[in-house]
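Hello,

I think I submitted the coenzyme A job twice by accident. Can you confirm which output corresponds to this input? Input:
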Amino acid sequence: MIYGDRVRLRHMEKDDLPSFVEWLNDPEVVRGLSLYTPISMVEEQEWFETMLKRPIEERPLCIDVQKGDEWELLGNCGFFGIDWRNRSAELGIFIGDKSYWDQGYGSEVMKMLLQHGFSTLNLHRIYLRVFEDNPRAIRAYEKSGFVHEGSQRQAEFHDGRFHDVLFMSVLRPEWVE
Ligand SMILES: CC(C)(COP(=O)(O)OP(=O)(O)OC[C@H]1O[C@@H](n2cnc3c(N)ncnc32)[C@H](O)[C@@H]1OP(=O)(O)O)[C@@H](O)C(=O)NCCC(=O)NCCS
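Support: Only one job matched these inputs. Its output is below.
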């Protein structure tokens, strides 16, 4: 378990899957993700079984928020594509429960993942990709210390047109705890 001020990150259980299926069928949530078709419970269960075969550092972590004595699931996040020789990894996050957007949870989780990536996994470079028309995510990443690196021009098609995909990163020497 990784604890922050208001949230904790933990491994995913089968019981979490129905919430993910609900959120991943919400057009507002998936707009910023690479998903572009509806998703079923059966597909999510298959994804879960495959996910368990990934290296442990690359398995997504559930984001729980503390509500009194209880913990409530908000979404998930995690590293993938870890390149151990170059000590570089990509990050992803989604908060499925929209009532929690714009309250600093996304940036809190990103800071926890930077801490985990640099202090525990011994990474040197942590990067992410974000669509240019996702200002909420871009702002959350900027607040967490990510800097703009460049973009892939018109690399993503949605809402009837092409969008640039922005790259953002944090290097270990510039990371501020
Ligand atoms: C992206 C996401 C993780 C951000 O989490 P969050 O908890 O909402 O983010 P935060 O509250 O930490 O920060 C959001 C910031 O964006 C700002 N913001 C919101 N809408 C904005 C807009 N249209 N234009 C500019 N800034 C905006 C907020 O005001 C806030 O900044 P502030 O704290 O300076 O006021 C979350 O919204 C999410 O999961 N969205 C759906 C999936 C997704 O897009 N994932 C990212 C894929 S790259």
